[in-house]
Amino acid sequence: MGHYHSHKHSHSNSSLKGKKLLFTILLNILITVAQVIGGIVSGSLSLLSDALHNFSDVISLVISYIADIFSKKKASLKRTFGYKRAEIMAAFINSSTLIIVGFILIFEAIERFYNPQEIESEIVIWLALLAIAANGLSVLLLQKDSKENMNMRSAYVHLFSDMAASIAVLIGGLLMKYYQVFWVDSVLTILIAIYLLFVGYDLFKSSFKILMLYTPDNINIKKVNERISQISEVKNVHHIHTWQLNEFEVHMEAHIDFNKNISLSEFNVILHEIEELLYNDFGINHVNLQPEYLLDDVKDIVVQD
Q: What pTM value is reported for the model?
């Protein structure tokens, strides 16, 4: 078994990443409390929906923070992979909350659309500005980490979408203040919800695929088979499994049928060649190969157990 590691992901800034998350949690608690009070006083559904979204942000950020802590724990005899999937689980949960909140907002907005209410637009405007400033700062803090980590990306998307929602609420507040167009509150809520569903589904799909051990999107199993089979000593490649442990570790296991009864030292040389090939061509950095010679088993690329 061989391992090729990509060191693009550095854990040297793990402590800083945790502090950034903790700071954004405190900021979002402040925004949520202010928006709930303001939404009740003003009667604005879009402000309350933004508060609900912010509350989901707080939950998602707490989950991300806990996952970040667990992901640093070392492997043990009972947990041989450690908690490497903690952050993928966090991304899955957070994306699920985005989708649930999106549907709740659409339902509430449709009901309010047919029963529009007069809204205190001044409160809406000032609280929207507060949310834009706070979420904008949070977005800037997490922007770099979001490019390298699915867990941080899920937290970043929550915050970015909330900043966008707050901008929409601000526009709605200005329209209500100067034009008394109160139905725009419901329309903006629906637009916010649609955006949440869109970004939530994308993250949900990505994290779900990893948790279900799907073949990574960038890997074609047939091409992997063809490339390994080009090695002269290899007769057949079968019983292939390829999956992601997390965003950085791609695993593959397979059975290799050889043309002749090679020695263990010869196998080690071929194994090294295959490892390099798989890492350079497909980004697979954890390889486990079972050598075979004249073994009577199923030779299909994918074997249904």
A: 0.76
